[in-house]
Design brief:
By secondary structure, the chain is an alpha/beta fold. It is 28% helix and 23% strand. It contains twelve helices and 23 strands.
Length: 472
Amino acid sequence: MRRSFRFAPVALAVAALLFGVLPAQAQAESGRAPDRVTVGGRTFIADDRGRALQWRGFNLADKSGRGADAFADIHESDLRDMAARGFNLARLAFFWDDLEPTPGHYDRGYLGRMRRILDWADRYHVKVVLDAHQDVYGPHFGSRGVPDWASRDDGLPFRPIPEDWFSEYFEPSVQAAFDHLYKDADLRAAHARMWMTVASALGGHPALLGYDLMNEPFAKFLEGEDLPAAAGRFEAGELTEMWNRLARAVRLVDRRSWVFVEPTVIVGLGVPTRLGRVDDPHAGYAPHFYETSMETGGDYDPEGTFIPAYEAAISDYPSRNRMPVIVGEWGGNPYVPHAGRFVTDMTAAMDRFSSGWTWWQWCKGGGYCFLDGTGAVKPAARLLVQPYAPAVAGDPLGFAYDPASRTYTLAFRTRDDTQGPTLITVPRDTYPAGYQVTVEGGRARWDGHGQTVSVDARGTAGTTYKVTVSPK
């Protein structure tokens, strides 16, 4: 039997969400200095010691489990094995249609299973971003996401396209449903209450990093619009408004966790976002990074322009708004001829413009799964297992990994408001015969303990250090 409870919204809170007004206490919280470090236009989340944090990990998603079987394909061993390979972040997909099967009734068992996964993550020192996932809106169109009761298609027909499921987003009925979600007052309020419920139940969990407020939002096209025009209009208007409204909902019950917002998928074509400002003290940017030709079954072209175009387009918005960038999804077929070059080029690009990423996805089997059916890492996917610095005691000036020489370099500059050592994760899979470390600049000492190198930089603030990790 499905256990549920009814969330009783407070009238003033709902009014605050609909009219864009925060309670006085929340407004005061918004004026606090954000927990971030900004260096050269790039922003990093900072820990309570002022260290700049970096993230590497995977998406966890069980799209087939429903009701009592929800999350059945996600196990404690997944978090344990991720951590054993040096990863520190999981993006956990959950589905509004399972959480709130009927209006106002939330499934306690579903929230409990989410909490259990957070407990596992905390046990293995992995942080979690909760992703409100949707594909083609939701079950009304044969997928997962927004509940059927919140689906208004204006009586327009829907044509399933199983061989090209993404094209279903362009069906007028699907676009109408998205439009109603953004514009109808009752659905806007229901969407906000859903996030208030999640944040109220899970917001204080020690493993929680934050909330990805909606996966890959889409919009209704107006007559005569192409995809770039529709995306730009939507991002500048309804999407910016929705991100602010949902962030305000979260802040009514959780003022500590990060909220992550996404642009539309048009960024994958190298088109800069037109998103407006998200007026929240802990807002991050979580774009997706998929190579278009690989998404349609092709091989990666090492000489192509996809990565340069994406990099040129992606950095302006988070730089202007001092938002940390964590790429919420990326991946590709690990069996195409240039799969190894694809992983190498993509991870190098993200080292240049982001502070972290989560690959789609941690699973066993075909497709983009990290593991094959036996549980072994797929050959090209082994390149995801590489050194990185989860905590930098100062300003990160540059970091990169060369898979050919298996050499990792980190340059950073010390600050006087930072405590604790710089930590570098050194996965066993990268250096099976051991590694060596050199530190240049100022006075420093380092210790290596298994998968972690700890660098204690001493001296005056503003001293620059370069750390190199290489095979013995």
